[in-house]
Amino acid sequence: MYILDTNIIIRFLANDDEEQSSVAYRVFEKAVNGEFVFLLHPLVVAECCWVLESKRYGYTKGEIASKLKQIIEASCVKTTGKEVVEKALDAYARCSVDFADAYLSALVEHTSSIQGIITWNEKDFRRLGGECYMPESII
């Protein structure tokens, strides 16, 4: 098993560097053919969102979520906290919020022992439907 880094996913999706994109494509091809498995961590998903929505790449949140979900769904990819990541990508695209906020909201919803999120960014978390608290309200 190999951990996928952001730059491999970016080269694979954006095809913006001929040499590296070609290598990234071949790496994915070998994995799809069963030669090895990838581990995808939520931090890498977050960084992919950040990079792909930058001015350099200009992808929409919907495009990013769709492309990353295709990678997550591949049989050669094992994603840490897959259900939470998929739910976060859906919310990221649907609610037009940062992936980190969408991820935290999905994590709260998925984990019964978490009471909510402490934040001053109430607007985004309310849009996500998550339980959130202003710091002043819990002291």
Automatic annotation (TrEMBL):
Transmembrane segments: none annotated. SUPFAM superfamilies: PIN domain-like. It comes from the Bacteria. InterPro entries: PIN-like_dom_sf, PIN_dom. Residues 2-129 form the PIN domain. This is PIN domain protein. It comes from Geobacillus kaustophilus.
